[in-house]
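## retry 2 of 3
previous attempt timed out at serialization; input unchanged, resubmitting
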Amino acid sequence: MAPRDEFTRLERSRILKPVDNTPVWSVVCFFVDKEYRQRGISQRLLEATKRWVRSQGGKVLEGYPVEPTKDRVPPLFVFTGLAAAFTSAGFEECARRSPTRPIMRCRL
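## retry succeeded, writing output
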């Protein structure tokens, strides 16, 4: 995670382009070992990220999770996290330019 402007690829994405001019920090990926998946680790990582970003002076944290249309999605496709984990960690959808890729924010 870092301030959004450090992730230039997001700026060029038609799906993940900025929603507005709000300065945000971005959480862009997770790695949870196969042995520990489906245990709420992503949600706990998001909670820790919120605390850290707040300690750095961040006011808004933004994420780009996947909201699958099927029950099971290969792990390769959910490295940005699942929307359900973001929702559980207090994030709300603020934009959606693709059926499976919401942009979610949490005010800190």
